[in-house]
Amino acid sequence: MAHALSDRERVVEYIKRETASAVTFETHYAEPCGWRGNFVRINLKAVAEGKITAGALADAFIASAIDVTEADLEAWKGEWQDIERAVMTLYPTLEGLEADSKAIAQLLSEGKYAMHHSRQYNAAYAPHYRIVSRKEYEKLKNRLK
């Protein structure tokens, strides 16, 4: 992830391509999400409708990734283990659970914390967004009304 985020123009172009190829968007521009509400999902609808530029979203996205500390990652690992135990207890036969669990464990062991959605999720929900920290969202929020 760090390699991909080191090239700002690549991130901007990817956001532009995804925005242009999207068929539908959710109705809202921003939605609180993530661990302890410290993140906000910015819908690419905001870029498509000119509320923010792909560059502004890319900058917020990159800055958000840089702001994640080792302590944040360690806290998230512990919380993720609790979530995983609950999912395994409630849905032990969930398709792909074991493979996803291994993939997430591998990412976390490498100090990474983000991954793409599954094909099933993309087909069902067609998500088009980027996650930014609440701090970065505060810089954009007035344009997202």
Descriptive report:
The protein is mainly alpha-helical. Helices cover 57% and strands 10% of the residues. Helix 2 packs across helix 4 (54-66). It is globular, with a radius of gyration of 16 Å.
Strand order of the largest sheet: 1-2-3
By DSSP (H or I, 4+ residues per run), the number of helices equals 8
Structural class: mainly alpha
Distance between the termini: 30 Å
Major beta-sheet overview: 3 strands, antiparallel
Estimate the mean pLDDT confidence.
88
Helicity level: 55-70%
Summarize the helix and strand pattern as letters: HHEEHHHHHEH
> Which descriptor suits the 3D outline?
globular
Strand content: 5-15%
For the secondary structure, the number of strands is 3
Return residue spans where pLDDT drops below 50 for at least 5 consecutive residues. Answer: none
Summarize the SSE layout with pairings.
Elements: H1 2-5, H2 8-21, E1 30-33, E2 39-43, H3 45-48, H4 54-66, H5 70-90, H6 97-109, H7 119-125, E3 129-133, H8 134-140
Antiparallel strand pairs: 1-2, 2-3
Helix pairs in contact: 2-4, 4-8
Care to give the gist of this entry?
The protein is mainly alpha-helical. The chain is built from 8 helices and 3 strands, in the order ααββαααααβα. It has helices at 2-5, 8-21, 45-48, 54-66, 70-90, 97-109, 119-125, 134-140, and strands spanning 30-33, 39-43, 129-133.
